[in-house]
Amino acid sequence: MTAVIRSLLSLASVATVHRTSSYAYFSRSTPYCSAKIVDEVTKAQTAKPTEDTIFGKIARKEIKIDLLHEDDQCVAFHDISKQAPTHFLVIPKEPIPQLSSCTSSHEKLLGHLLVVATQVAKKQGLADDGYRLVINNGRNACQSVYHLHIHVLGGRQLKWPPG
Q1: Burial of 48 (0-12, 13-18, 19+ CB in 10 A)
Q2: Catalytic site residue 149?
Q3: What is the pLDDT along the chain (163 residues), one digit of tens a residue?
Q4: Which is the catalytic residue, given 78, 87, 106, 149?
């Protein structure tokens, strides 16, 4: 265990450590936190779509976190690596590696994910001033976790163009 992880454990008084790929996730009954081991670009360049993912473990409830939303098709929760004052993820429970893996059979599920993103954004107070949805698809888009997920970012003026 690296010194960074040990330091975060002692600071956060965290009960459980979950290590997947190049992330270490810490969980307890309150929202979880993580220690970022390598930057997202490097991680995206080495990530493999065949690995089990942290999001799969969250969807299967193998890792307990505070959920913003859960239904039979998806879950939503705060991102551990916030890029805006409000940053949460919406993930399907079905382990779809990335958007480009979707077929017409996923049409209803994809629509549902967008509706849930909108509902949770409203509950998080983002409806009036706006928010951005981001789906990273593949290595060059910095997809580092190969489980389809929608980032919802808001709470500040976002820049354009992104990236």
Answers
A1: exposed
A2: yes
A3: 334 333 333 333 333 333 333 333 333 333 333 334 358 888 888 887 767 899 999 999 999 999 999 999 999 999 999 999 999 999 999 999 999 999 999 999 999 999 999 999 999 999 999 999 999 999 999 999 999 999 999 999 999 998 7
A4: 149
